[in-house]
Backbone:
């Protein structure tokens, strides 16, 4: 599949995204909260955005459960190296892959690298994302709008397209959507729109693949403490009270979200497809 250079722009980083977990204080809690039980033994998983935050917590938890992990990330090399070390400390094989998955050729390269290393793909976790707060829709530039869609939803299409021939009965795809799909967000118009698209993509892809024994589900986190928000993904005013508007009155931690991804990736959820789980601090949403 050929890329179209005019449509693929370099990542936007004026605001410090995607952000480094190593410099964050307090640090997000990624540590698995219970011993592994082999629920992904012998499986191969690709986890995007796995250098930090939710992606790191998912990668390390999957490693503890026996999976080999392809750690895909954009540019935070130190964080990605640390995630690989953490996965290997769990006894897992792991590799790192740096690249912009908003380019279909890069998505294909990730799949080719994983297949070349391990010869199979059993779980695909589409977690990578970016957000840029704007108080007025007129402040969202065409470049930002296109970039947010490329990272958050186009990359999912490209990666599934690249991996499809290698996904067989028993495989699982888990996408990361957001509470903003259901509640909206007045400062994250473009981001919320992509997350709504991800929810629709999840349901439609499930309908397309379920007859082949491939399950597709999603997780819709609420406010989770990751590098994304303090590195420019949230306005200073919102950051001062981050997560306080949830019924639990606090933001969540990545290791409170990762088990939802594990449940949907393993046979525990064998009768679920096209569904969304909601680790969001108690906020009630429909769907």
Residues:
């Amino acid at each position: 599949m050929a890329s179209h250079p005019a449509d693929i722009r370099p990542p936007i980083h004026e605001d410090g995204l995607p952000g480094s977990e190593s410099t964050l204080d307090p640090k997000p809690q990624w540590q698995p909260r219970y011993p592994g039980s082999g629920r992904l033994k012998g499986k191969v998983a690709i986890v995007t955005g796995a250098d930090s935050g939710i992606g790191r917590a998912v990668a390390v938890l999957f490693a503890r459960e026996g999976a080999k992990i392809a750690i895909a990330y954009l540019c935070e090399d130190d964080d990605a190296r640390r995630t690989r070390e953490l996965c290997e400390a769990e006894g897992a094989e792991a590799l790192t892959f740096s690249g912009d998955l908003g380019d279909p050729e890069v998505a294909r390269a990730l799949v080719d690298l994983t297949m070349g290393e391990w010869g199979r793909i059993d779980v695909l976790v589409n977690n990578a994302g970016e957000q840029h707060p704007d108080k007025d829709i007129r402040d969202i530039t065409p470049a930002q709008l296109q970039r947010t869609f490329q990272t958050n939803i186009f990359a999912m299409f490209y990666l599934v397209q690249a991996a499809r021939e290698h996904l067989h009965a028993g495989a699982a795809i888990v996408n990361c959507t957001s509470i903003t799909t259901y509640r909206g967000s007045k400062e994250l118009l473009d981001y919320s729109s992509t997350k709504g698209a991800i929810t629709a993509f999840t349901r439609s892809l499930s309908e397309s693949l379920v007859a082949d024994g491939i399950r597709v589900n999603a997780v819709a986190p609420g406010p989770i403490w990751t590098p994304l928000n303090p590195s420019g993904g949230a306005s200073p005013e919102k950051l001062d009270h981050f997560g306080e508007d949830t019924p639990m009155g606090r933001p969540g931690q990545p290791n409170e979200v990762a088990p939802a991804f594990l449940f949907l990736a393993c046979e525990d959820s064998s009768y679920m497809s096209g569904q969304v789980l909601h680790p969001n601090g108690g906020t009630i949403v429909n769907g």
Remarks:
- Residues 16 and 231 are 5 Å apart (CA to CA).
- The beta strands are 44-48, 68-73, 94-98, 123-126, 172-176, 215-219, 276-277.
- The radius of gyration is 17 Å.
